[in-house]
């Protein structure tokens, strides 16, 4: 039987913990190549008059991470915000406030990934039009990663790039509740969970960032 889209009633039964578990279970199904049976066209029809997603995922724009696919979700299941380097600004935070406070999403996941081009650009101090200003948002994570003297801190060092990407996820997770009182209040009330994760572009696996 095809899985239907979430309704107001089924969304209300979801907790922050169960929403996160659904994302992780969905990634496990993706890795096993055993997706949930669903009719996307039926879900289009079911969500035509309203949406009741259970989660928001903030992801990089990288084309190798089709968010709904890697979490085995359908139409109307998750909100997705995408920006190179998966950081937050006022517009993204406002969108998250809508998604969580008004539309009922139970979890926000900040999803970084390995071999991130935006992180590589920040590590290399790339300069190109408006990209320069955008990459400045990632520099706090670059600077936070301490390495032994003489270590290659450029995009050529894959381990360094991936460590910066993970630190950037942690910084973004912290910024969400630091900069949005609406989301912070929801977290404190147990209505919302904010978590970080990393996607491995070589395997398709999502791992939570502790």
Could you name the key traits of this structure?
single chain, 210 residues, alpha/beta, five-stranded mixed β-sheet, 10 helices, 5 strands, 13% strand
Briefly characterize the structure.
The protein is of the alpha/beta class. The chain has helices at residues 8-12, 16-32, 40-46, 67-70, 90-102, 117-123, 129-135, 139-144, 158-179, 181-188; strands spanning 55-59, 78-82, 107-113, 193-199, 206-209. It is built from 10 helices and 5 strands, in the order αααβαβαβαααααββ.
Description:
With 210 residues, this protein is α/β, with parallel strands linked by helices. It has helices at residues 8-12, 16-32, 40-46, 67-70, 90-102, 117-123, 129-135, 139-144, 158-179, 181-188, and strands spanning 55-59, 78-82, 107-113, 193-199, 206-209. Strands 2-1-3-4-5 form a 5-stranded mixed sheet, sandwiched between helices. Helix 4 links the parallel strand 1 and strand 2.
